[in-house]
Amino acid sequence: MTRHTLAVFVAAAFTSATCFAQGSQTVLEDFKPSTLNQPGQEYPQVNSQGYARFRIKAPKADSVKVSLGLGGRGGTRLTKGEDGFWTGTTEGPMDEGFHYYHLTVDGGTFNDPGALNYYGSVRWESGIEIPAHDQDFYALKNVPHGHVQQILFPSPSTQTSRRAYVYTPPGYEKEKSKKYPVLYLQHGWGEDETAWSNQGHANLIMDNLIAEGKIKPFIIVMTYGMTNEVKWGRMKEFRIEPFQTVLVDELIPYVDANFRTLADRNNRAMAGLSMGGMETHTITLNKPDVFGAYALLSGGIYNSEELKDKSKAKLIFLSCGSKENPDRVNKAAAELKAAGYNAVSFVSEKTAHEFLTWRRSLHELAPLLFK
């Protein structure tokens, strides 16, 4: 799910000069291919200011638009050249980090053949990365790396085998007797169990923190949250019980039986972004003896009243982007602290409901878990 909506329309003009004016800002002509492009593809491109430029070959089309953001609202209209290529640049700079997008060509929805695809908004969408000033914490570095493996676990409640991805930290395969805590980490609406590894770089964030000696190594389990059966705008119809059964009664026992886990409440945490945060909130309240730490990433808040008379969490982590509702998150954490809970709030600067918010949130959360 992306989480920046660029609600603009623009017809871009190009010159051979080193820069050109667009709106009130001079746009620098230092565009480079996005790091998420297909091999050998020059477009889409991003410049040092965060503008994105698109170029699509559609010689017989009458209209081409690039739609960015949740549900594809808003977009950048492209201009057709004599060579049959449609080109355009976003009206303003985009937030740093990852964004989904797709093309609308004569009313039809298509992916950009120049970009890699990521599952979000209930479909495989094109992806573009705006380099972040703090991207080093999720960069691929020459450090020991853990493994992300697919597992298929039996699910009697859904009468099928279900898929999850499991991150095991560096050294897991060699240290045959060592056991690890586990974080169950959920994606958002319209995404699936691939999101945290592909869009979120959760494994790289963990590898780098472990290499820096900043965290106690732990396992991460990511599974499908049964969210896509509920359409956008009808979230009140979502029922937590089916997923709660899959997670608590089927997946957790399977993980504990097949991985070297510390299989107790104090060494088990749950976190989720957006709708995954809603799932986390509900399940941890329903099953307070299963998880010892909770984290909601742009996924709501807890209050002391709903936590009363339940097993006390070792950590409650609340986060969001500064363009979301930071006052609500900070206020909730302060209220929980006053009530005696170990509550921490984090606000990602200059981001909204998007993956850089959640990458940063995981980076802040991980060192606090399993102390």
TrEMBL record:
<dbReference type="Pfam" id="PF00756">
    <property type="entry name" value="Esterase"/>
</dbReference>
<dbReference type="InterPro" id="IPR013783">
    <property type="entry name" value="Ig-like_fold"/>
</dbReference>
<dbReference type="InterPro" id="IPR014756">
    <property type="entry name" value="Ig_E-set"/>
</dbReference>
<dbReference type="InterPro" id="IPR000801">
    <property type="entry name" value="Esterase-like"/>
</dbReference>
<dbReference type="InterPro" id="IPR050583">
    <property type="entry name" value="Mycobacterial_A85_antigen"/>
</dbReference>
<protein>
    <submittedName>
        <fullName>Esterase</fullName>
    </submittedName>
</protein>
<feature type="signal peptide">
    <location>
        <begin position="1"/>
        <end position="21"/>
    </location>
</feature>
<dbReference type="InterPro" id="IPR029058">
    <property type="entry name" value="AB_hydrolase_fold"/>
</dbReference>
<keyword id="KW-0732">Signal</keyword>
